[in-house]
Specification:
There is one protein chain. The protein has 334 residues and is α+β, with helices and mostly antiparallel strands. It folds into two domains: 10-149, Cytidine Deaminase, domain 2, CATH 3.40.140.10; 169-325, no CATH class. The protein has helices spanning 10-21, 53-64, 91-103, 136-139, 142-149, 169-175, 183-197, 204-213, 217-227, 235-239, 249-263, 272-284, 288-301, 306-316; strands spanning 28-35, 38-46, 72-78, 108-114, 118-121, 133-134. The chain is elongated.
């Protein structure tokens, strides 16, 4: 199960992308670095609409150069623009990107365009040698089969389950909001640490206690920092994804699952902290589009929720977590 995947054909590569990102992108540029013949880091950005081509290309390459071992790159453009148009959709951006990648000594080796119906080679418009192809070729590729066999699946965005708790939950959660520090915070940190080791130990009462703890900004920040192992004990560094070593991503996944469980006992109007934590975790994983949606849900739950506003601003400006830019620390889906 630990043997390298044989990803060799274009269909294999196009199957690989959604598995790495957790969803099939829409209106996106996905750049994959190559280390010799091996695939490296995967970077997704929204398709450019109003950016100047050179500035967009320089931004993309600044992220890609975090993979210091990269010797080349591949590009996948997901769009429902007119694929038969000449010039191709986003042609000015692709040309600018090719120039910047050449300068960075990680030249573009190949590129494809994927719509909701077909896919084709982006760099070749000859219908004889590069015709449009069915998406079934991606689904039925050996690469997709190998990824599924290893347990990977394209899950897509997970909507939080609706509140299923009792009517008194709102008051109970409010009563559990820490009002003494550091004693109450330390108790919740210890509880959180135990649950990260044994998530099956989450009881209904513990869920209400932690839901209350997350209502307090300082306690929330401590629990977030404690989610990341081998991290400096500084909120700012942790929140920006700056870690001294690779995080224990299994532990981070466990934290995310626990927070989803907390929302089941948390009514509307008290969910913003949990939605923000999930959005932050998605951002750390390099899934900015998911992160933005969770921050939006947090702001719909509590208007003006400060942490969600700050993180949404980072995402909207295209800023990636520091760990995303470092292949040695970046998240890899199990």
């Amino acid at each position: 199960m630990n043997e390298p995947l044989n990803i060799s054909t274009p269909a294999d590569i196009l199957a690989y992308v959604p598995h790495m990102l957790g969803e099939t992108p829409k209106e996106s540029f996905v750049l994959i670095t190559m280390q010799g013949n091996a695939l490296g880091a995967t970077l997704r950005l929204d398709a450019p609409l109003c950016f100047e081509p050179k500035a967009f290309a320089q931004t993309v390459v600044s992220y890609a150069t975090a993979d210091e071992a990269a010797t080349g790159t591949l590009l996948v453009i997901y769009t429902d623009e007119n694929t038969t148009a000449d010039p191709r959709p986003f042609s000015e951006y692709v040309q600018a990107l090719r120039i910047e990648l050449e300068t960075a000594r990680m030249p573009l080796k190949d590129a494809w365009m994927v719509t909701s119906e077909v896919w084709s080679n982006y760099l070749c418009m000859d219908p004889v040698c590069c015709p449009e192809r069915s998406l079934d070729e991606i689904t039925n590729s050996s690469g997709n089969a190998a990824l599924i066999y290893r347990g990977s699946n394209v899950t897509g965005f997970t909507n939080p389950e609706p509140f299923t708790g009792e009517a008194a939950a709102r008051e109970t959660i409010a009563a559990h909001k820490p009002d003494g520090w550091p004693e109450n915070t330390e108790a919740r940190r210890a509880q959180w640490a135990e649950l990260l080791q044994n998530p099956k130990g989450l009881t209904h009462e513990a869920a209400l206690e932690l839901a209350g703890a997350l209502q307090h900004p300082i306690t929330r920040d401590y629990l977030m920092a404690d989610t990341i192992t081998n991290a400096p004990d500084q909120f700012t560094s942790v929140l920006l994804g700056v870690f001294v070593a690779r995080p224990d991503w299994t532990r981070v996944d466990t934290a995310q699952e626990l927070v989803f469980e907390l929302m089941k006992v948390t009514p509307d109007g008290q969910r913003a902290p949990m939605l923000s934590v999930i959005g932050w975790i998605e951002w750390l994983k390099g899934k900015s589009s998911f992160a933005a949606r969770y921050f939006k849900l947090a702001l719909e739950d509590v208007e003006g929720f400060r942490f969600a506003e700050l993180m949404a601003d980072l995402v909207n400006r295209g800023l990636l977590a520091d760990c995303v830019r470092d292949p040695k620390k970046a998240y890899t889906r199990p």
